[in-house]
Amino acid sequence: MFVCFFSYDLIPTFLICFEVLQNQALQSEQEKQESNRTKRAALQQTAHFKAKVSKLRAKASQPLAENEEAAEEKSQSETWAIRYKQKNRGVTAKFEQHVRCALATGATARQVTDILLLDANYLFEPSKATIFCDSMPQLRWVQTQREGLGLESYIYSFMRIAGAARVLQWGFDETTLDGVSVLNQWAMLEFEVAEGGGGVGVQGVTIVTLECAGVLPCGLAVEVVEHIELSWARGQAAVEALRAELGPDLADQLCPIVAGGVNLHKLFGVMHDTCHAANLVASLMVDLQQRKKREFLSDEVWELVTPQSKAIFNFLCGNHTRNLPIDRFNKLYDKWLEEILGPAMREAKTGAAVRLECNGIQFLRTVCRLTHTGSQQYAKGDGDAFKDYLEANYPNVTSAKVNRAETSKRQDWSVEASYDIYPLLEPLMAYTVGTLLQEANLLRDSLLVTLESLHFEAYVHVNAIMWRVVFKELRGLTNSLRQRD
User: Which of 10, 92, 419, 431 is 20 to 30 A distant from 27 in Cα terms?
Assistant: First the structure.
């Protein structure tokens, strides 16, 4: 028999225990509800991902186009589309490449844009032509592609240098454009027989342009050499980055590196013009090449190299060199003319509206300005009138070959122009005498005074003979691309 003894003194204790048990049960129920909510959310997320994966699998299992018309539209879109369907992706890489190829032909950005619009209207039906023309980028975008094209060409040049066995001849020319010093670089590369080469007349040899009007910090020789060294270092870094992008399977096939890649130690000859700054740059480049070669071979191997193998050729530019005798002749002629006619010419200018100078080049310029017709015809000249005079009085003589004056030409312009001017001396004398009664003309009257002197006629005669006998053929030999020519 069970006997329970109950006391009212235990009631507070029972109430406390009941409250604790009730709180524990409530907390357990809340935790259970929270767990259930978490499980439901996870199940919903899993179901969402399963549905998305199912859609992707279904889309991947479908054909690329449901019918032939959709397939044709897709094919045409991939062929001539200018922009990607996603607006934030911009112009397609294929169209960008096509524009750069068009610019590589020498056409301007405006010409390329106009040609693309004309071709679209000719090749496509009206609806597709409208889409193409509306999608065309602005002219400014086409202009920026020329910069990209230049960078591509820059990389291609360094790729050829990296794969060349040696640089037979490296040349440079520093000049100034609009007050800014710029530099041109080019190189004649020799490749191993297995690699082939360029088709410049000798198998395995080609010529590349490294830099055209590259901006220099200044025209000092030391700064020019530092710029050259930096440009070659950038070329080596660009080739290495390209090889890393190609991967080990394609790097040696498409972008091989021979003898260290883009390195100045490959230089076998330096070519430059005849000015003092260029001569100094060439000397510094020879020293730099020797240092680079020592670094490439190591000090121990460098000491074993013969002096013949260490030597590097230092050439003067043929186009500049062949003009040095002409330049010297003109200076000596002007000095001699000043001694003979200087006082008389200065006296003749006193109180007269004529411009007289003891200068053979200036005499040729005066003839060109007076007689030239066509493009850049001198406003104060008698080009058209003298042309009519020749047709009426000297039908077998023409002034068509006479330009206004030399424009960015070398010193041999004087002998070339003299060859064309010499047959005009007699007609010019008769023409200028016959126009004395007309209104005064400074150019024509000054030319008449100099034409009356045999000294200038002798100058033109000697120049004409030298052009025909020596310098015309020498110019052709200097600029020949093939040895056998």
Answer: 10
CA distance readout (Å), 174 to 10, 275, 436? 111, 10, 48
Residue 481 and residue 485: Cα distance in Å, rounded? 8
Q: In what order do the strands lie in the sheet with 166-177?
A: 205-215, 180-190, 166-177, 269-272, 313-316
In sequence order, the 6+-apart residues with CB closer than 8 A to the CB of 336 are: none
- Look at residue 45 and give its three-state secondary structure: helix
Report the C-alpha gap between 405 and 367 in whole angstroms: 9
Residue position matching structure tokens 């003749």: 348
Sign of the dihedral through C-alpha 409, 414, 415, 418: positive
Q: Are 64 and 74 in contact (CB under 8 A)?
A: yes
Dump pLDDT digits (tens) for 41-77: 666 666 555 565 566 556 555 554 444 444 444 444 5
What is the per-residue DSSP string for 397-437? ---TT--SS-SS--TTHHHHHHHHHGGGHHHHHHHHHHTTT
Among 480, 476, 474, smallest CA distance to 322 is for 474
d(CA 100, CA 82): 14
Q: What is the DSSP string of 325-346?
A: HHHHHHHHHHHHHHHHHHHHHH
The H-assigned helical ranges of 6-108 are 11-61, 68-80, 93-104
Compute the mean pLDDT over every residue in the chain, rounded to the nearest whole number. Answer: 79
**Is the pTM of the predicted complex or chain greater than 0.70?**
no
